[in-house]
Amino acid sequence: MTLPGPLNPPSRLLMGPGPINADPRVLRAMSTPLVGQYDPFMTRSMNEVMELYRRVFVTGNRQTLLIDSTARGGIEAALVSVLEPGDKVLVPVMGRFGHLLVEIAQRCGAEVHTVEAPWGQVAPYELIADAMAKVQPKVLAVVHGDTSTTVVQPFDGLGELCDRYGTLLYADVTASIGGNEFLTDAWGVDIATGGLQKCLGGPSGSAPATFSARAEGIINARKSIEAGIRDEGDAVAAHPIRSNYFDMSMVFDYWSERRLNHHTEATTMLYAARESARIVLEEGLGAFQARHALHGRAMMEGVRGLGLEVFGDVEHKMTNVVGVVIPEGVHGEAVRTRMLEDFGIEIGTSFGPLAGKVWRIGTMGYNARQDAVLTTLAALEAVLRREGFGLPAGGGVDEAYRVYAEAA
Ligand SMILES: Cc1ncc(COP(=O)(O)O)c(C=O)c1O
Fold first, then answer.
1. What was the pLDDT predicted at 1?
2. Beta-carbon contacts of residue 82 (< 8 Å; ≥ 6 apart)
3. Which of 346, 347, 294 is nearest to 320 (CA)?
4. What phi, psi does 345 have (nearest 5°)?
5. Contact 172 CB / ligand 1 (< 6 Å)
6. Does 204 sit in the ligand 1 pocket, CB within 6 Å?
7. So what's the pLDDT on residue 102?
8. Ligand 1 pocket residue status of 174, Cβ below 6 Å
9. Which of 181, 209, 216, 304 is deepest in the core (most CB within 10 A)?
């Protein structure tokens, strides 16, 4: 067999719902030398990452660290570490990732209850409050920003509700963290897990996460250190966490002074996550969010300027993704293919009930930029016209320019 040639990926502008083009600073950090697991540089970098992400999550939580996995693994680590078979979980489902929380909680053996809202809408507080009173779950698991629908779920009152019933509040912030307001401590969130490949401007493969002292206590009560690294006196729980890799009690020990040798930390991803957080905090969390809001608004008004309809509850839209209703008679996949092949621009498709009906266009992380927004709108106009859809010439770019002029 002949060897495949050297890796030479095409140049793309990734304007889908994530992954996006990683910030060149992150890519540079990833090409720096590896060090050993217990090298003082490595352990210092781990501590720095904890401190950086406390600021990104706006929390004082000691257990703020990276889970070596894509964002889905972060969710799984959180849920499998707190849930025992038979525990009750409540999940508001209004998009693909609510379904994912249900699926993961079920696989943990939990008794899962749901409240549902149509895709593109938020779950009303009253609906969640009623279900909380009835179910009184161990965990309320909520997707904050659901990229499948572009909508951000308000957390107002959820922390108080959870306090009332002794419930842990879990948030999936993969798609929202950095680019949308998220206040872990102020909102009473016990566990939040994210991913690098959206607003944080890195590649997928690391899940920054934070755990409150209350969550840490529940998880550590299930601690069962594996035999080969166990010290005399180490507890062996009667009901250990059902996953070894995602056993957060051992991962906590790895990230603590104890430096328990659980897995081998993914050094290059740690470098990436460290640089991602530095980029956010250097700009300032507020300014970073404002930049996402500005470019997201410019993209949304640009889409409207092309005569296209924006999908979902716009009042609750995430800053960083817009859903675009595919017009009657237009073949959504043909447009996406032309965008990619003719312009090198990727926009997103949709899942479930929205498949074939909605495109999703992201403006996040490194790509929350004016040139990326204008280029995408100009290309979309050209492609739609080529696909036979008549639309106002220059309407998209003009509307985006208007938003930028008003903000200047
Ligand atoms: C809200 C949300 N949760 C979870 C995930 C899963 O992330 P990953 O593909 O990194 O596992 C995504 C990915 O798009 C997401 O948007």
1. 82
2. 138, 139, 168, 170, 191, 215, 218, 219
3. 294
4. -110, 130
5. yes
6. yes
7. 98
8. yes
9. 209
What dihedral do alpha carbons 148, 23, 71, 208 form, nearest 10°?
A: -130
Q: How many Å lie between the centroid of ligand 1 and the Cα of residue 32?
A: 27
> How far is the C-alpha of 205 from the C-alpha of 221, rounded, in Å?
28
Tens digit of each residue's pLDDT (9 = 90 or more) over 244-296: 999 999 999 999 999 988 899 999 999 999 999 999 999 999 999 999 999 99
pLDDT tier, 101 (very low <50, low <70, confident <90, very high otherwise): very high
Residue 348 Cα to ligand 1 middle (Å): 14
Q: Domain boundaries in the chain?
A: 22-280, 285-407
Rounded Cα–Cα distance for residues 112 and 138 (Å): 10
Banded model confidence at residue 232, pLDDT cuts 50, 70, 90: confident
Q: How far, in Å, is the centroid of ligand 1 from the Cα of 190? A: 19
Protein residue closest via CA to atom 1 of ligand 1: 146
CA atoms within 13 A on the CB side of 99: 12
Q: Is the distance from the beta carbon of residue 131 to the nearest atom of ligand 1 less than 6 Å?
A: no
Ligand 1 in reach of 69 Cβ (< 6 A): no
Question: Residue 78: its pLDDT value, please?
Answer: 98
Taking only the tens place, the pLDDT of each residue in 349-391 is 998 999 999 999 999 999 999 999 999 999 999 999 999 998 8
Mean pLDDT of the chain: 96
The CATH code of domain 22-280 reads 3.40.640.10
User: Tell me, what's the pLDDT at 237?
Assistant: 85
Identify the band that residue 236 occupies on the pLDDT scale cut at 50, 70 and 90. Answer: confident
Residue whose CA is closest, atom 2 of ligand 1?
174
97 three-class SS: helix
Atom of ligand 1 nearest to the CA of 176: 1
Tell me the best of 148, 174, 318, 321 to mutate to test the pocket of ligand 1, counting ligand atoms within 8 Å of each CB and taking the most.
174
285-407: CATH topology is Aspartate Aminotransferase, domain 1 (3.90.1150)
Question: Binning pLDDT at 50, 70 and 90, where does residue 145 land?
Answer: very high
